[in-house]
């Protein structure tokens, strides 16, 4: 008799995830652990909360073109970012909180410690949030972020990217990653990206150009599905889901 039901556990592939210390990614030296890791039991509050719902989301929270405006339009290439949050067996993950934050079209964050010479856009806050629907689908309107220099080597530039946070049913289930954009030549030159040993894993972090969802004369669309657990899971900055 053949077992046709999906397995409950997927073995972690340790060649898929980047090492904690990557010499060419300079700040990984201070961020990588020097002592053996400890497994901590979650408290009840971490397992059971917080509980998010659509009542916690304002109507334009997912519209970065309008949720911080001071009477004008944000500057830059208008884009749609959309996709689904699914599990390892392609089943939707409904009603989960998805948050994003990013630099503006010039490559500058709205943060007091960002001193890059690109100007701050007075009509762009750079962050948004939404809940997935019953099919695990999410949707944002924003501007395509610009590349920016960072102090890794003398002439290091981060590719255009958007940070993504996924919340489960508790604080201990928060996962954070960042997505890149199809066709960006800086992806292959980024030391953070180069720390990922498998080229297929890098592809999982690249949002694909989606002309079917593009709105003519308005916004170019990019599709980015987020897969939790399994061999094809999306890489996260803190850990692989379920491991």
UniProtKB/TrEMBL annotation:
<comment type="similarity">
    <text>Belongs to the intradiol ring-cleavage dioxygenase family.</text>
</comment>
<dbReference type="InterPro" id="IPR024756">
    <property type="entry name" value="PCDO_beta_N"/>
</dbReference>
<feature type="domain" description="Protocatechuate 3,4-dioxygenase beta subunit N-terminal">
    <location>
        <begin position="10"/>
        <end position="42"/>
    </location>
</feature>
<dbReference type="Pfam" id="PF12391">
    <property type="entry name" value="PCDO_beta_N"/>
</dbReference>
<dbReference type="InterPro" id="IPR012785">
    <property type="entry name" value="Protocat_dOase_b"/>
</dbReference>
<dbReference type="InterPro" id="IPR050770">
    <property type="entry name" value="Intradiol_RC_Dioxygenase"/>
</dbReference>
<protein>
    <submittedName>
        <fullName>Protocatechuate 3,4-dioxygenase subunit beta</fullName>
        <ecNumber>1.13.11.3</ecNumber>
    </submittedName>
</protein>
<dbReference type="Pfam" id="PF00775">
    <property type="entry name" value="Dioxygenase_C"/>
</dbReference>
<keyword id="KW-0560">Oxidoreductase</keyword>
<feature type="domain" description="Intradiol ring-cleavage dioxygenases">
    <location>
        <begin position="47"/>
        <end position="230"/>
    </location>
</feature>
<keyword id="KW-0223">Dioxygenase</keyword>
<dbReference type="InterPro" id="IPR015889">
    <property type="entry name" value="Intradiol_dOase_core"/>
</dbReference>
<dbReference type="GO" id="GO:0018578">
    <property type="term" value="F:protocatechuate 3,4-dioxygenase activity"/>
</dbReference>
<dbReference type="InterPro" id="IPR000627">
    <property type="entry name" value="Intradiol_dOase_C"/>
</dbReference>
